[in-house]
Input
Amino acid sequence: MQIKESSKVYDAIIVGSGAGGGMATKILADAGLKVAVVEAGPYFDPADPEQMTQLKWPWESPRRGAGTVRDFGDFDAAYGGWEIKGEPYTHKDGTKFDWFRSHMLGGRTNHWGRISLRFGPKDFKHKDVDGLGENWPIGYEDVKPYYDKVDKLIGVFGTNEGLPNDPDGFFLPPPKPRLHELYYIKGARKSNIPVIPSRMSMLTKRINNDRGVCFYCGQCSRACQVYADFSAGSCLIFPAQKGGGQVDLYVNSVVREVTTNAEGKATGVSYISKEDRKEYQLKGKVVVLAASACSSARILLNSKSTAHPNGLGNSSNMVGKYLHDSTGSSRAGFIPGLMNRKIYNEDGVGGMHVYTPWWLDNKDLDFPRGYHIEVWGGMGMPGYGFGFNANEFNKFFDLPTGGYGDSLRADVKKYYGSVLGFGGRGEAIAREDNYCEIDPTTVDEFGIPVLRFHYNWSDYERKQAKHMQETFEELIHNMGGEPLGPTPSKEEDYGLLAPGRIIHEVGTTRMGDDPGKFVVNRYQQLHDADNVFITDAGPFVSQADKNCTWTILALSWRASDYIVEQLKQQNI
Amino acid sequence: MDRRKSIKSMILGGVAGGLVLHGCKPEGEAAATDTGKLEGFSYNYGRTPEEKELIMELENEQFFNEHEMATIEQLCARILPANENFGSATDAGAPAFIEFMAKDIPEMQTLLRGGLMWLDHKSNSEFGKEFKSASEDEQKKLLNTIAFYDAGIPLSQQPIEIQFFSLMRNLTLCGYFTSKMGIEDLGYKGNTPNVWDGVPQEVLDEHGLAYDEEWLAKCVDQSRRNEIAEWDENGKLIT
Output
């Protein structure tokens, strides 16, 4: 088969268009570089009526929003899911890892929760605190200027609280708490658990004249048609194009490998077009991988050459190792005080208005790292599942459950908005034996070898999940409520979700100064090929008890500045 | 899922005006900009071409036969009958929703179809006629034996007719409350552009709650939300 080459040589080829790729596109294009963005999925614009799901009613979907096709429901913005037909992944030794991929312009930033937390000083040097894992080669002071710039460019609401490990920033003002959040604040105070306004990237206030202001439909997971929430397409790539940048978008283009020359330097990428299923090559001076931690690791491992026989960037044999996701354990409670609610519009922003950052000292606990608490509830728009077990809570009042007739109407209204739920999202310890690697026995429909995962939780994570469950039950009782379902047992890992489920996977191409131990240096440049950079969450040394996106954005900006500088100095 | 058909050629779902977009060949013609119009496709909620195909495929199949559909219509109206203000679940279109879901989630098919058979068999044994031909009193007499479940026992361990009726009730109520009529009945007020400015005072009073002054002072002043944000060097918002 003849591989079709383009004669154009880009200054930079960016693989992936999510948070990391979107930011690299914006910074490199603004600096005047000719960039190609190669995205495995289709073009996506949340303002395009043909793609829009925001402000649709449940009856506009024949399945009323059920998650049979899109995992997070028929109106969710993600094109992809836990399983994608024709693009399998496998597991080793009976271990479990669930991998969520969203192939579309903007990637997973189109549907994500927009929880936008900075890592704190301790998060970069946590080995100094407890001896576990590894320190980052950089510290908060290196990233802070970029967090500040990301705050101002993209917009995030929150408050400056002066907390030691949850740094202040340049925040937009937060929305007022909703009723169930006031219940939560009150309940948490009884246990001395702090609650503060959430930090999320929706525009509660205008940030520029290109993007709209939040109109409180609560549907950020559907992607916002006025660009009032952060998605990489609408907030980074479109502005890069509109700003006159030289940005060529290659959509429906699946990157197979980074091509290299005899000296081992990258010359570009090869990709398969989904439109004609033919292989193409692009040439570039610099390649920026931002396909997601696992996808970028896969591309590197599949980029074998004489110069890089073990895969590109893998002389250390570390590509794919130290994969870790946030921990997650959840619980919901029935709150009788929230029965028989007066109904008004409380959609708010898409997600929580308040949250609890990690508040304890692990020195006093039997697990090493913390978690934050997310909270949900309220009188949301009905969708698939609404009305199921409509009067199940009758059991708490010794009333019969089930039945039929007009009384069910009253039951539904009586309990509407009376459930409040918690998600604990915590830090796991990265370990070498949690990894992804190439499965030599399996290819995807494009003939590209796929990933095989090997991942086990340890007692560090299980004990943390146990603590989450104990905290959630205490909080639910403080609110006068009843926890739903039995307490998850030890055998159920205390409700600890399978690795991958929180979709914060990081660590596959860790940054560090020692080329024998780390894949990229402190500027996210491959130790083995100086014109290849990684700007997704692969270079994370540890994931913290935060969400990874804001740090991906800050670090991608920082790496992109470095690329521009190195190109100017003709070092690469 | 295996039964999902994938279209090998991905067609772009639409292109925003004024933006540069290239297909696989940057200098060549732009990638297909077919907006994915499909003959006879009546939905408009941002479906990809493959998703449209799947919906069309499911709608072109008929799972329940005419007798089963007639029985479902009666059941939906028994589960949620009309009242003085609103129609029944059948009036709100719950039966068509159930027909669609039986195809969309085929794991439900046996329980639904088997349950309908059970109803007819029981009705025939007791009243000498199929369920749909039984009188209201007869139907209710029969339903009273299967409509209640023990919340202390997992549903999967309860008799099949109780499982069937629970599923039927779930789908009926869901079909109703996700319909236009049902949402009006429920009184849900959202899914519309608005400005959230806190819990109404009378609701706070009813729940014995109040906002902290200190907290409130940090929250958005909605009268200034359209002023472009600016901060001092310490991160204090000054607009």
User: Anything to note?
Assistant: Residues 1-35 of chain B have pLDDT under 50 and may be disordered. The first strand of chain B starts at residue 148 and ends at 149. The CA atoms of residues 9 and 210 of chain B lie 57 Å apart.
